[in-house]
Design brief:
18% helix; 6-stranded mixed beta sheet; two-stranded antiparallel ribbon
Length: 318
């Protein structure tokens, strides 16, 4: 991935106060905690006749900063769970991924020519670590493409840059939990571990929210608030990266503040969700952890709802 890249950047944005306005986020699609967004008829999420990522999608991961093997396994198992080749009880992560294909990718230009047998699958291609934080522990957004290039993503793939809890990234916690962007060759996603910096913003509902109703935090499936928060945000940004990789795919609103497949359903994880309540979720009888999907190796995850453009509703697994 070249350092010079097209400026298609979409962010998982935050708002500084909840339950106030429905203003768009700073750089793009935003996960607005505790706030349910109802789109106006004039700005429904639509397809803009551009490229989506379909078929075999290689994902390369760059771990920036220190992550334990257990922490890395939470994310790598999630990526493995996205394909039907990693069977899991229903509701499953692969079902969530299939919904993206059904609602979005199968409706894109060229999908009919590829035929219904074309299966969009994510393959974990490689993982690279930079534990010493070679670019320092305070990163600018302009440095993310260079970090993504180190993951050496394949053409038509995604580079996933994950920063550790002691790494500061421009705008992290203040206006975003993650973002996705692209150059002419591949897409990239960045998500930070919010455990030490802003779990109330970027790991809700596994931590009490920074603002608004102070409902008790839910127990995270992996036992690690920061990593389960990262998975929620990785899921949201990967969904955006495959459905709107270059800024001309599926989105709602102006390009500079676009809502996408997951970010059009902020704070919704189960049926019956409302501000301050993530929705009706499954609860593990042994650990008490809340989740809505099963994954590879017995994992459980909490994944964001997907906006259904045809029905103008948020589609949930539970």
């Amino acid at each position: 991935m070249a350092a010079t890249h097209t400026s298609h950047v979409f962010a998982l944005a935050l708002v500084s106060a909840v339950l106030l306005g429905l203003a768009h986020g700073t750089l793009g699609a935003g996960r607005r905690l505790m706030e349910l967004y109802t789109p106006q008829p004039s700005e429904l999420l639509t397809y803009h006749n551009g490229t989506v990522l379909r078929g075999a999608i290689p994902v390369s991961v760059l771990w920036y900063g220190r992550f334990t093997p257990a922490q890395k396994a939470v994310v790598s198992d999630f990526l493995l769970s996205l394909t039907a080749a990693s069977p899991a009880p229903t509701p499953s992560v692969s079902q969530w991924w299939d919904t993206i294909d059904q609602l979005y990718l199968s409706k894109a230009k060229g999908a009919a020519a590829q035929g219904p047998k074309t299966i969009t699958q994510v393959a974990l291609a490689r993982q690279v670590s930079d534990e010493r934080c070679s670019l320092g522990k305070s990163l600018k957004l302009s440095q993310l493409p260079a970090l993504a290039a180190r993951a050496r993503p394949g053409k038509g793939g995604i580079a996933l840059v994950l920063t550790a809890e002691d790494v500061a990234v421009e705008g992290f916690c203040m206006s975003r939990c993650g973002l996705h962007g692209s150059d002419a060759r591949a897409a990239y996603v960045w998500v930070g571990n919010s455990a030490a910096q802003c779990p109330g913003q970027c790991a809700w509902p596994f931590h009490k929210p920074a603002y608004g109703p102070q409902a008790p935090a839910l127990a995270p499936p992996s036992g690690d608030v920061g990593m389960d928060g990262m998975v929620m945000n990785v899921a949201s940004m990967v969904a955006g990266a495959v459905t709107n990789p270059f800024g001309d795919g599926f989105y709602q609103g102006p390009k500079g503040a676009a809502l996408e497949a997951c970010t059009a359903c902020p704070g919704v994880y189960g049926s019956g969700a409302y501000p301050g309540y993530a929705g009706n979720l499954a609860v593990d009888a042994t650990t008490g952890a809340s989740y809505n999907s099963n994954g590879a190796h017995g994992r459980k995850y909490l994944l964001p709802a997907l906006f259904d453009p045809a029905m103008s509703t948020c589609s949930t697994l539970v």
